[in-house]
């Protein structure tokens, strides 16, 4: 189990590992998993709409939703491990030797490089999760009405995944010394957080059950 990819663990094994004293999987991997679940639910609603009476005109659009959701799901599954690996790389960089001036310089460079990567990984998760909100929103509005609550759960899971991933971005930005990089990412975060909340609210306001 220790050498197995996180994404290949059973649900019980994954939850047990999350609950253990190991720092991974942590919030970043959980955000990726949440986004993958949101994509899966969106894909499911699309499949429950395709071929159903009364939804013939939406067949092509639902097929596109299913295809896009599948691609997001596959990518986000990989990010479950990618996020944990990025964290491990940061920890490994901090453990590099620092006895000489050159070693300290090399260590600091490795730390900064690892921190930037550990920032970009959850940022990619947040970007994908944000797009899944829109995808799930189409399933809410046009998908099989018998599965509308599944689509709304997809919207909410994607919202949570996106906001959670952005928190993981924020905590890494604190330690990054490239001010231009930090400012650029902070601006994107600010825009995304507002859009994420507004998009979810807009979609859920259309749900009447």
Properties at a glance:
209 residues
Short note summarizing the structure:
It contains six helices and no strands. The protein has 209 residues and is an all-alpha fold.
Question: What would you note in describing this structure?
Answer:
By secondary structure, the chain is mostly helical. The protein has a single domain (26-204), classed as Up-down Bundle (Four Helix Bundle (Hemerythrin (Met), subunit A)), CATH 1.20.120.680. Helix content is 78%, strand content 0%. The protein is built from 6 helices and no strands. The chain has helices spanning 11-19, 27-49, 59-94, 101-142, 148-173, 179-204. The longest helix has 42 residues, at 101-142. The mean pLDDT is 96.
Q: What is the average per-residue confidence, as pLDDT, rounded to a whole number?
A: 96
CATH topology call? Four Helix Bundle (Hemerythrin (Met), subunit A)
Query: How many strands appear in the DSSP assignment?
Result: 0
- What number of structural domains do the residues give? 1
Blueprint of the fold:
Blueprint: H1 11-19, H2 27-49, H3 59-94, H4 101-142, H5 148-173, H6 179-204
Helix pairs in contact: 2-3, 2-4, 2-5, 3-4, 4-5, 4-6, 5-6
């Amino acid at each position: 189990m220790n050498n197995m990819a996180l994404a290949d663990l059973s649900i019980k094994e994954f939850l047990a590992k999350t609950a253990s004293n190991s720092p991974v999987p942590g919030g970043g991997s959980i955000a990726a998993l949440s986004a993958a679940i949101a994509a899966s639910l969106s894909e499911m609603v699309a499949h429950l709409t395709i071929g159903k009476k009364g939804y013939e005109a939406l067949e092509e659009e639902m097929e596109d939703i299913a295809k896009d959701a599948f691609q997001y799901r596959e990518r986000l599954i990989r990010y479950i491990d990618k996020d944990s690996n990025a964290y491990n790389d940061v920890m490994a960089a901090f453990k590099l030797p620092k006895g000489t001036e050159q070693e300290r310089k090399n260590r600091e460079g490795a730390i900064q490089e690892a921190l930037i990567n550990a920032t970009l990984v959850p940022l990619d998760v947040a970007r994908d999760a944000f797009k899944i909100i829109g995808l799930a929103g189409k399933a809410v509005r046009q998908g099989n009405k018998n599965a509308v609550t599944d689509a709304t759960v997809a919207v909410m899971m994607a919202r949570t995944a996106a906001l959670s991933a952005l928190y993981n971005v924020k905590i890494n930005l604190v330690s990054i010394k490239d001010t231009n990089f930090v400012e650029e990412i902070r601006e994107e975060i600010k825009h995304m957080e507002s859009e994420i909340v507004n998009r979810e609210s807009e979609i859920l306001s259309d749900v009447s059950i």
